Amino acid sequence: MASQQTIPDQWLYHLEGELEDSTNDLQNTNASLASLLQEHGLLGGQININDRLERYDAFGLRGHWLGGTALHDLFAEVLTKRLNRLDYTATDYAPAPEYQVYKYYNLDITGVRAGTTGSADRGFDVFATIGDVKVRILAGVHLTTGTWSLTVNKVSAAGLPTEGTVTIQTWGFDGESKAEIVESISDRSKVDHTYSGDTVTFPIYQTDNHTAFAFGIDI
């Protein structure tokens, strides 16, 4: 392709392997694909995978495994129904757990995208933006539990002093089943954190394998 100058506009692949497989994570495959393309002189081209990860500039399509009429209903399981979600004729749609994540991303994750890196064990991942009044962080796990530390470096770039105390608001995105109705995100309260060295670090206690979190830091 390189010799004939027929480089594709997009590189399309899927990540649908086991969660424990390190090759089933864009945090790793993004770098290995870039190295492979560079080795063969195939530079450029948009990455397109089956799930969007914006921090890697990768577009994607939400995948799901429903069949029959349900394949074209429920907005790829972002929605459910109040009585029977598999009744194709029913119109009593309601928000499923992940609906609230997309809603928050659409309405609240505003500003300039910040550089982020997932945890070294691949269990925890984050996305963040710097807005006019808040640093907003969207975070979640890869179907696991545990304790992690979330570190925000160079907070002065967002307009905060290099040391002091910040108040961090936490919200939870609840819901264990795709059939569950979740009307809103949950307020997990505000906590003051003292910091120094232009860096704020706070713990994440993940006691289940499905709740995602959003954090807001006033600036």
Offer a concise description of the structure:
The protein is mostly beta strands and 219 residues long.
Report what the structure shows.
This protein is mainly β and 219 residues long. It has helices at 26-39, 97-107; strands at 10-12, 46-49, 58-60, 79-81, 93-95, 112-113, 124-130, 134-141, 146-153, 164-173, 186-195, 199-206, 212-218. The strands form 4 sheets. Strands 6-7-8-13-10-11 form a 6-stranded antiparallel β-sheet. Helix 1 (26-39) links the parallel strand 1 (10-12) and strand 2. The termini are far apart.
Keywords, separated by commas or semicolons:
3-stranded parallel beta sheet, 219 residues, single chain, mainly beta
What is the secondary structure topology, with strand pairs?
Layout: E1 10-12, H1 26-39, E2 46-49, E3 58-60, E4 79-81, E5 93-95, H2 97-107, E6 112-113, E7 124-130, E8 134-141, E9 146-153, E10 164-173, E11 186-195, E12 199-206, E13 212-218
Parallel strand pairs: 1-2, 2-3
Antiparallel strand pairs: 4-5, 6-7, 7-8, 8-13, 9-12, 10-11, 10-13
